[in-house]
Amino acid sequence: MIETNKDNRMTYLIRAALGALLAVGAASQAALAHAEKEGTRPADGAVLTAPPETLGMNFDMPMRVTLIALTDQDGNEHALTRHDGMQPVTAFDAVPPALPSGIYTVEWRGLADDGHPMQGRFSFEVTD
Ligand SMILES: [Cu+2]
């Protein structure tokens, strides 16, 4: 009887572990089906010796960027000029003002063509 209980417990643990693995697999498959940010301009963590002329994100499916904000290390927001007309794009670009040296973060939100809301952030540094 004790052995049987042990076996049952082991079976339960194995089933639970397999279930968790399957859940992780399903989640990553679902994520693959969604739009993902493929890259940013500049790259996340980039250190630039000159201010960037544009800021942007690449997507693998059209994305309507609903909000984008550029903030410096002091929390000051720097206005961006965008030319996408709020239309879905796979390559989004916005033009920042001339940026002094500092550390900047871009935060964005969007609505992918499949209807899913997306968001992201990336940072870069401008040095003298
Ligand atoms: Cu999606």
TrEMBL record:
Superkingdom in the source lineage: Bacteria
Protein name, entry field: Copper resistance protein CopC
Taxonomic path: Bacteria, Pseudomonadati, Pseudomonadota, Alphaproteobacteria, Rhodobacterales
Keyword annotations from UniProtKB, A to Z: Copper, Metal-binding, Signal
Start and end residues of each CopC domain: 34-126
InterPro entries per record: CopC/D, CopC_dom, Cu-Rt/internalin_Ig-like, Ig_E-set
Taxonomic source organism: Rhodobacter flavimaris
Signal peptide: 1-33
Compartment annotation: Cell envelope
